[in-house]
Amino acid sequence: MSFIWLSHQSLILLDKESLRGNNDESMSGDDSVEKEYEAAMKNQNEKNTNGSSPLQTQQDDNDDNVDKGSNGFMETNRKFVKKDFLDINSDLEKKRNASMFVTAGIESYDSQDEGSALDQNDRRKMNVIILFPDDWRHDSIGSENQMIKTPYLDSLAKQGIRFRQHAVTTSICWQSRATLFSGQWASRHRSFKLRCPHFSVGKAWSNTWPAILRRNGYFVGHIGKWQYHNSDIGSRFDWSSFFEGEHWYRRGKVKVAGEDLARDETFRFLKDRPKKKPFALTIAFYPPKPIGVSNKPGKQWEPKNETRAIYENLTIPEPLNATEAFKRLPPFLQKGEAYARWKQRYVTPLHYQEAMKNMYALITQVDQACKEIIDEIKKQGLYNNTMIIFTTDNGMFNGAHGLAGKWYPYQESIRVPLIIYDPRMPKDKIGTIDDSFTLNVDLAETILGAAGLKPTKGMQGRDISDLYLPKKKNEKTALERKPWRKEFFYEFTYMEESAIPSSKALVRKQWKFIDWYLFNHTQLFNLDKDPLEINDVKNDPANSEVVKEMKARLKELTETLREPDIGCETGDYFLHSKEATPKERK
Questions:
Q1: Contact 385, 123 (CB under 8 A)
Q2: Cα(576)–Cα(25) distance, rounded to whole angstroms?
Q3: Which of 14, 302, 336, 402 is 20 to 30 A from residue 103's alpha carbon, by CA?
Q4: How far is residue 172's CA from residue 177's CA, in Å, rounded to a whole number?
Q5: At what angle do helices 83-98 and 31-47 cross, to 10 degrees?
Q6: Whether residue 288 has a cis bond before it, omega within 30° of 0
Q7: What's the whole-model pTM score?
Q8: pLDDT of 191-205, one tens digit each?
Q9: Is 56 exposed, middle or buried (0-12, 13-18, 19+ CB in 10 A)?
Q10: Cα–Cα distance, 39 to 22 (Å, whole number)
């Protein structure tokens, strides 16, 4: 089966064991095979010119910012291998097959105990497509907000499952993306800094799902935003086309919308792919993320005129918690970057209306691009063997709490959409809504599961298909053997506390406990009674035991998860050895 990834995030009980990683036993492996494989990869990287023909793009100043000196960021990698490497790889493939890929800490699906619960159709290697837009919160789809027009995503949810409580474990672009690929909390992948992608260098990358799938015969691609500025990004995929930072790009004399460019590059990938191999593709749309810095109403979003016209006569309601919630924020949150961006984007009613209408228009455009991509998948006869994942990297405040941006552990920031279409789904699950706590850290294991592969020991999530496939063993389903998580750990580590304070939180269905640890300040919210998180009830005597228990639990999870930041290496993996400036990190 192939994967298509539509971006925005299985749960297990958050115990020490699960947070330390997957505990399946793995064989010790043959180091000589791994060394030979790495040598071949290095040789291929040195020889392969990749047929790159960088396309010129314009780059405005924007929050993520790609290096200003690069004047945009677009690179292609389509001539993915040379014959001499294919010959080497063929020999190595036989050796790795013989050793069951134990050097990666995984085994073939047939070696797993649960294989007996699945029929033969479930053993096929599905394709996977991940549709992964930027800065898109959980309720920015038509099924949650009738003002937003997302007809394709609404229909996809009816053909699959929508996970309504899906969340990210860190709400900022690059750290969330590192979690997507590594299946790890930020504390483990340690990619805290924009120019310090620990997850994608050296042996760390070999334990990500793209690397594991490639070793197991998949053709793996990436389109659109990458964000980490390591200089050898193209070598991590069989096919790649990187571009980010804009809503419009130039192709010769023609301007092309970002989502349309991503669609067109997907068509190229589908044309170029080896037809006898399963594939996995991440399509990382840049819209609807705002670009640049502007105080003009709505100018950080640039939709098509015809799409914008859909929303022209609407009045978008302002958030119910925009004013009162801001007054009740801790003083250190009433200043800094989130408030500064609110003043740029939403300071007047006109600012708010123009910003939201333009954002909604971009969302509608991405929805249409997703439809056209999946239509092509259907045209090529791949739909019934392709897992489709739609999710995003983080939410957005959009004026809630009187803030803009994301970062903080409030619901608007950490909750994102997740829709999964899986041809293996039982009929009684199709079109349902699941309110389990699924997380972005679960996606790596979900993708590997669709390929019939075990996760590495370092991964910390759970295959989301446990929620909808029986996977019976000894007459018990996966959930009967191990219930889904009832809580999760959130963390945000930043480098400049005065601009964007770091935080950690313990999230449950009823309660959320937040620790702004560098400010010696905590908060407690009763999400059942106060879903907008306006009233901090930490000091209510009736909640003293809740505070005590959740504070202890949060400390326990912090100690279990966290690993020290070892600093940023310099060298060929990075375009710059300096730390990113505050502007570049935002």
A1: no
A2: 39
A3: 14
A4: 9
A5: 160
A6: yes
A7: 0.79
A8: 887 777 888 888 889
A9: exposed
A10: 28
